[in-house]
Amino acid sequence: GQNIDQPTEMTATEGAIVQINCTYQTSGFNGLFWYQQHAGEAPTFLSYNVLDGLEEKGRFSSFLSRSKGYSYLLLKELQMKDSASYLCAVMDSNYQLIWGAGTKLIIKP
Amino acid sequence: GAVVSQHPSWVICKSGTSVKIECRSLDFQATTMFWYRQFPKQSLMLMATSNEGSKATYEQGVEKDKFLINHASLTLSTLTVTSAHPEDSSFYICSARASGGRETQYFGPGTRLLVL
Question: Which chain B residues contact residue A42 at CB under 8 A?
Fold first, then answer.
């Protein structure tokens, strides 16, 4: 079967750095997406990785290792507004997105 | 990023009535649109995938006669919840993807449905 695993909840301090991990097992791979979802709102696109390595975009970076079936989202200089759920999703061989359950990130002052 | 709109953002209706939700891609042509449902504190659940001009593909457990999907143009898809019941109350979110299959899905803002 196909599955995406990510921690249910993480807590971090304002100004710090946090890494949210995602491991996957899917039938085929056509890229991995990270989305941010604030409570009561729809997800917004953060990043897309299809090749191994680190993609940096401002305070957010995303890393992919296809051989390990592993990705992480790195958030630097955390702000209170970063409190949200972070969803990992993998596009399989049929170009369908397989979604993780999301990681709820709690930022404390 | 690309812009996807949804209308209405909120709807309250009586049990037994039908509700139509529109999803529009505003600045790109969406070959494929997706409809999701999300209950409070739960993850996204894909309901169906629709390709322009063809019938939608429904996920297992989703009643196609209850959730009617029409993707009549490259910028518009509609979801109609027929004979709505209180258990259909949820957050309905559409997303759109441009042609090519590898393109990112962009989400609409969602529609909150409350069935009394």
Answer: 93, 107-110
